[in-house]
Amino acid sequence: MTGRKRTTSRSMCNHVKVFRLLKVTGLSFLLIFLFLLVTALVRTLTFDTNAGLQLALWEKREQIPPHISQLERQQLIARFKDAIRIPTVAFSQTQLNTTALEEFRRFLLKAFPTVFSSSLVKHEVVANYSHLFTVPGSEPSLQPYMLLAHIDVVPASQEGWDAPPFSAQEIDGFIYGRGTIDNKQSLMGILQALEYLLERGYRPRRTFYIGFGHDEEVNGLQGAMNIVALLKSRAVKLSFLLDEGLAVLDGIIDGLQGPAALIGTSEKGQGTVKLSVATGTGHSSMPPSETSIGILAAAVSRLEKNPMPRLFGLGPELGTFEHLASKFSLPVRFIMTNLWLFSPVVSRVLERKPVSNAFVRTTTAVTMFNAGIKVNVIPPYAEAIVNFRIHSAQSLEEVLQIVRDTVADERVKVDLISGFDPLPVSSHSETSFGYQVIKKTVLELFPQVSVAPGICVGNTDSRHFVDLTKEIYRFAPTWFKPGDTRRFHGINERISVKNYEEIVMFYFRLFQNCDIGKLPEPHGSVHEL
Question: Which is the catalytic residue, given 152, 250, 484, 501?
Fold first, then answer.
């Protein structure tokens, strides 16, 4: 009896210990949950990435007011339309419309006589069709900056357009044509702004360069790369560089209250891979169990069914959503302000749509598939081309290894055609001169927008300039509304007359804002801008 009582007593004691352990564990989890909840709520209520330099006192400098007459407005629109009408198409690296490129050079000379006749401006033709402008400042101690744009455009057939793609026809306040948003709006806006400033007696304090490549759409191997070589030979180092890339998005981001200007601080990398299968041939009446097409199709299917891993929150996209968090309503604001906690949930939501999936991972796109020689012949060879846009948290080599592991078939040959790693991420802190000056200029022109750093899912000429500066930004104040993203390289590319005028005024202000000697002291913000 005594032994049984002891056993019962020990059992009760053990139950009490287990209960106490569970109680302590439960209370610990509850306290951790309450701590996380309070932390998240406080962050939601206090987090404001738009504080700081926006509220501080910038260096006061006398500036030329951005006033243009009605006649000047008519003339700037007419010049822009003339630029669109010149079909500077780049079909491939070896097939450029050189006749149009030469015509465009002559057009620029006529359109901007003050720029080309000014003793202040040095103009050089690079690689036959690209252009480099050097404008020296009055204070050589200030590090120079550079603006980029490109002359060439992608091909366009007339099918499906509301107006011929090189007509520059105006319909309901919009100018239609290839190059209106990629990228002649920036090129013409830069030169038009400089023309107006020089006419009004402008003399820059800070030296700047302007570069216009002629083959950006086919990788910029002649235009941009030769401009870079020329600047490197002169030991040029830049404070920052601004190229095309992101834009003002109005109604594009679901749930965001108001438009957002995204300034690209990096670009995704790129890899183009060829998958190929070589097998025996023969008559289709006696087929093997698998043909080259079947083997390759299965491999391609595995790549599409097994997307690259989610990497949301490990690249510049984290800064984008944190900067815009306060512009969402609850409960989305609560989630976006606390991506340190909710990024796995957000990534699963974003991956549902192709546009937002590009922020989540390296994307996989099968773009070409070639096989077969005759209806009754077993194809001896099949190949597919797959294009990957590489997330900032991955490398090209890592992507290739995942491709090989996913294909997992020795009969399928995997070859890299071309590719490069993601570009370095430029700073967007309160001490980043280029980013802050661009942001200031945006807010002067569009005080209603939110400004945030972003990631370019496409590639630009700016990637060739990494040896000249660490601070490369990709932005033009082109407005995109729902449906407009499909116009980029697509049908009915267009820009509003009003928006083109705004682009001219943006560069008019930017040139002068860049003459600021240094940034103001931060206004007590501990968050990056």
Answer: 152
Give the separation between CA 118 and CA 146, rounded to whole angstroms. Answer: 19
Strands, E, within 100-240: which ranges? Answer: 122-126, 130-135, 145-150, 170-171, 174-176, 208-213
SS3 per residue for 383-400: EEEEEEEECCCCCHHHHH
Q: Residues, the chain, total?
A: 529
Q: pLDDT of 446-483, one tens digit each?
A: 999 999 999 999 999 999 999 999 999 999 999 999 99
Active site annotation includes 62: no
Which one of the listed residues 182, 195, 215, 216 is annotated catalytic? 216
In 308-440, which ranges are E strands?
Answer: 363-371, 377-378, 381-390, 413-420
The predicted model scores a pTM of 0.89
Question: Quick check: is 59 catalytic?
Answer: no
Residue 38 binned pLDDT confidence (cut-offs 50, 70, 90): low
Name the one residue in this structure whose structure tokens are 């599409």.
304
Least confident of 66-80, 322-336, 447-461: 322-336
CA 420 – CA 463 distance, rounded (Å): 10
**Closest among 255, 336, 318 to 44, alpha carbons compared:** 336
| Cis amide linkage into residue 183, ω under 30° from 0 | yes
